[in-house]
Structures are given as C-alpha cells and as structure tokens.
Specification:
Blueprint (H helix, E strand, L loop, with lengths): L5 H7 L4 E3 L2 E3 L6 E5 L6 E6 L3 H20 L2 H17 L1 H12 L3 H21 L6 E4 L5 E9 L3 E4 L7 H13 L3 E4 L6 H12 L7 E3 L5 H10 L5 E5 L2 H13 L3 E5 L4 E5 L5 H13 L9 E7 L3 H13 L19 H16 L3 E4 L14 E4 L6 H4 L6 E7 L2 H8 L7 E5 L3 H10 L4 E4 L18 E2 L4 H6 L2 E9 L4
This protein binds NADP nicotinamide-adenine-dinucleotide phosphate.
The site of NADP nicotinamide-adenine-dinucleotide phosphate has 31 residues, from helix 8 and helix 9.
Length: about 500
C-alpha cells in the first residue's frame, strides 16, 4: 500500500511536455485541465501543445534516430529493463494516478501496472533477439542476407482507457527495435504518460528518443506530424472512425501503420458449458475497467436452454458489485470517463428495452457528482438493437440466445468488428471449430481475459491492422532488408 497522498503524487507529476530530453512549456498559451471523473474536479493543469510544439517533438525524434538505431541492442534492452524495475518501485504511484485521472478501481489499476510493465520486460528481452537469415539462392550463384532494421521515427497515439499499458505496449517495442518516438496520450488521461516519460528519463533513456506531447487539439497537432516526410510509422490505439481517418492521412505519406481499433466481442455460452466458470469469465470480460475495454464482452450469446440460468446467476453477481470512487475500499465499479459515456450507455439500454428487452438489474445513470452508471444486465435483446451493433463501453451486459452452433457462429460474426471473442464449452472439438470459424484476431476458450505481453494482441476486420506484444510486436517497428552478394570466390 502506497503511503503517498493524492496531492503529493499529483505535485510530482510533470505539468510540461517532454521534448528533446527537456520538460518544456507549450507555445500555445493554452492549458489542459485534467479532471477526476469520480468527482468532476480538476486535479491538475498541464501544457496544451500547439502545432509548433508537435513539429518540435518531431524534430527531436528525427535528430535522435540515427544514434538510437546505432545503440547496441543490449544497451537498449537494459534501459527498458531498468524502466521495468523502476515501475515496480513506483507501482502504487502509477496505480493511484490512473485511478485519479481515469477512474478505474485501485486494484484494477494495480493490475494494469503489472500488465503494462510486462511489455517493458518482454521487449527488453526481444531487443537482443532481432534475427535475420543467411542462405544460398536457388541458383547457387549468390548469398542472400535478410536483416531487420528500425523503421525510423514513430508517432504513437494512445487512448484514455488503459493510460499506462497502451503506452508501454507501443513504446517498448519501438524503443527495443531502435526507433525514436513522438507519443501523444488522450487529452482526458495525459498524466500517466507524463509520469511514464519521467520514469524513462530516470531509466537513462537518451535525449530525444521519447518525446511526449499533450494536446486538446489532437487533429490539428497530429496532421503535420503524420504528413512529415521524416516520420516512418504511425501506431494508433483508439476508435475505428478515428483509425480510418488516420489511415487515410497515413496513406498520403505511405507510412507503416499499426491500428488497434474498436471491438464488439461476442461471448458464447454453449449448453455444455460449466456455468460457474462462464459466469466468472463473464464478470471479468464485461466489468473489468468498468466495461471500458476494447476487449470487453459486448454481446452475450447464450444457448436458449441455459440462458435463463446464466442470466439469473450473472445478475446475482452483478448486484454484488460496488459502485464508487476507485480509491475507496471494496469499490469494483468506478465512474465512466465522462458524461458522453453515460449518455451512450443510457441510450443503448433504452433502445434495447424499447424493442422488447428486459432489464434484470441496474439500467440507469447514478445521480450525484461524477459520471457513474449502474452495473446492468439486459436480457431478451432483439436482433437489430443498437446494443448489439455498437461498442457499449460501459458496465452493461446484454444477452441474446442461439439455438445451435451454426446460429451461434453466425451471430458472433454479424459485426464489422473482429478483435476478440470468448467461448465457454467443454467440447474440445467444438472449441477447435470455433477457433477457426469465429472471425476475431483473438479468442479465449473458457477464459474471460486473453491479454498477455507474450501474445500477439490485435484484431481483424475493422478492429485493426497489426499485432502488439509477442514475437510479432517488435516486427511492427522493423523493416525487412534483403541483400544479395555473389557466392564466395565468384
Ligand atoms: P479515440 O477517440 O479514437 O481517441 C484515441 C486517441 O486518438 C486519443 O489520443 C485521441 O486524442 C486521438 N485522436 C482523436 N482524434 C484524432 C485525430 N483526428 N488525429 C489524431 N489523434 C486523434 O478513442 P478513445 O475514446 O480514446 O478510446 C476508446 C476506443 O479505443 C474504443 O473504440 C476502444 O475499443 C479502442 N481501444 C482499442 C484497443 C485495441 O487494442 N484494439 C485498446 C484500447 C482501446 P484526444 O482524446 O486528445 O482527442
């Protein structure tokens, strides 16, 4: 348990941007007020980047690129490893900071520190394992060499829902690969990123390798960076509509891109499922992060023969959830990020009910300070309801039924998204069929969380392009280069 108070912690978080190894004021003359969504109060005021500040960050990343690429992999690895160790020392501080600016319960924020930290450790190990190939060409006349080189300066854009992990999942592989970075967190949760930049500075990262800009005008500031001919890579995590816009901008500069976009995860419960395990999995897959995860189960697709039992059991568990400020003991559901998120959850529930669904528990916004929504279960959801098509991004569990496996798979795939899916069944052959037939980049069989730094995270369809984590993660930041030499003595 950290002994640091909220005010002491907030006082030691930088309020300026990190550019070229210096903590700098913005030239915009504006400031960003960061709020605690549990109270609506401003907790810190920080720099608000102008277009010129963005260009300055790009200048610094470009200037540092050659030296960082030439830095021995072992040296890059050890900086990342030191960052991992420092994060363990500061774990309680990072956890509290995320709870303050984003709202998640403290225990979950600690979980994010563990998860986010693993990317630093994993990619410190991957930095020294960037391989290549050497071989004889089929004609026997030459030697073919394939090597992997850093892509070059990268622009990394992260969302508000996992303020630390979404940054480490991009920054760690970029740095491990030898790329320099401009990092832009969401306006709603910039403090964790600034504190993370300080940690990397303390870990000995050379000046200019990581640059952080915080801005309330993300489109205006990002445009010139994406158009800058020195930029070689754009990696984005956020919503699908913004991802599509950024892909179009990136096309003009023919940038390498990685896109981790929205989800609409199906959670399938078959008639042979262990329902206790399915309910445990459902609670994790739905209510972790207050339902505000791209991996959050969005549609519970349950066999008609067990739907009533499943709904009753899950409703009993949902009634035990405790809503409140994430810093309070025992709280399991914090606030949603803002009023817009509350209105969206409310309108999705209303639309489902207007078409015939039944609310088993919850269903409304919570009156008073902060942006809270009751943990909710809605059953009997009718096909065509908005709640089945859109990302809920809130603590609302919606149930529809299916009759056989083919029906379940059709319903699971009836979305433009394809990030993750979950399936509960005790039939191994069925599980194997689902792994192949459900159109998602990831699938959890009898588990409610799949994320792991050692695994390739990412989606298909409109959930994105590329993978983060695993052996694939570092390849997103490497170019493949092929060289041909004549055979020896030729
Ligand atoms: P968002 O509105 O798309 O914003 C994401 C980031 O993009 C923020 O930093 C935002 O900055 C920035 N941004 C917005 N418009 C921009 C523009 N025109 N140019 C450059 N940057 C721009 O998404 P969000 O509401 O923060 O996050 C929730 C979404 O992220 C959900 O759809 C969720 O599924 C998805 N997500 C996906 C994954 C994954 O791995 N697939 C992980 C987590 C979240 P400002 O906020 O400052 O405008």
């Amino acid at each position: 348990m950290s002994t640091i108070s909220e005010s002491e912690l907030l006082a030691q978080v930088p309020d300026r941007m990190f550019i070229g190894g210096d903590w700098v004021e913005s030239t915009s003359g504006r400031a960003i007020e960061v709020q605690d969504p549990a109270t609506g109060l401003v907790i810190k005021t920080i720099a608000d980047a102008s277009v010129a500040d963005g260009t300055r960050a790009m200048d610094a990343a470009a200037a540092a690129q050659a030296d960082w690429a030439a830095t021995p992999p072992r040296v890059r690895a050890e900086i990342l490893r030191r960052a991992f160790d420092l994060l363990q020392e500061r774990a309680d501080e990072f956890a509290l900071l995320m709870t303050l600016e984003m709202g998640k319960p403290l225990a979950e924020a600690r979980g994010e520190v563990t998860y986010g930290g693993e990317f630093l450790r994993w990619f410190s190990e991957e930095a020294v394992r960037i391989g290549g190939q050497y071989g004889v060409n089929p004609e026997g006349t030459g030697r073919m060499l394939v090597t992997h080189l850093p892509v070059g300066p990268c622009f990394l854009i992260t969302p508000w829902n996992f303020p630390l992990a979404m940054a480490t999942r991009k920054v760690a592989p970029a740095l491990a690969a030898g790329c320099t970075v401009v990092l832009k967190p969401a306006e709603l949760t910039p403090l964790t990123t600034l504190y993370f930049a300080k940690l990397l500075e303390d870990a000995g990262l050379p000046k200019g390798v990581l640059n952080v800009i915080t801005t309330s005008t993300s489109g205006e500031v990002s445009g010139p960076i994406i158009a800058d001919p020195r930029l070689r890579k754009l990696s984005f995590t956020g919503s699908t509509p913004v991802g599509i816009r950024l892909l179009k901008q990136a096309a003009d500069n023919v940038l390498r891109t990685s896109m981790e976009l929205g989800g609409n995860a199906p959670f399938l419960v078959f008639e042979d499922a262990d329902l206790d395990k399915a309910v445990d999995g459902a609670m994790l897959a739905k209510f972790r992060n207050i339902g505000q995860a791209c991996t959050a189960a969005n549609r519970f697709i349950v066999h008609a023969s067990v739907a009533e039992d499943f709904a009753a059991r899950v409703t009993a568990r949902v009634r035990e959830l405790k809503v409140g400020r994430g810093t309070e003991d025992g709280v399991t559901i914090g606030p949603l990020i803002n009023e817009g998120a509350v209105s969206k959850a409310d309108s999705l529930v209303r639309d489902a009910v207007s078409r015939g669904a039944t609310v088993l528990t919850g269903g409304s916004a919570v009156d008073g300070a902060g942006t809270f929504f009751e943990p909710t279960v809605v059953t009997g959801v009718v096909p065509g309801s908005d709640i089945l098509r859109e990302e809920i991004f809130g603590p609302v569990l919606s149930i529809v039924t299916f009759t056989d496996e083919a029906d379940a798979v059709t319903k699971a795939n009836d979305t433009q998204y394809g990030l993750v899916s979950y399936a509960f069944t005790q039939d191994l052959a069925r599980a194997q069929r689902l792994i192949e037939s459900v159109q998602t980049g990831m699938i959890g069989i009898n588990v409610g969380v799949v994320s792991n730094a050692a695994a390739p995270f990412g989606g298909v369809k409109q959930s994105g392009l590329g993978r983060e984590g695993g052996a694939e993660g570092i390849m997103e930041y490497l170019e493949t280069k092929y060289a041909l030499t004549p055979s020896p003595g030729a």
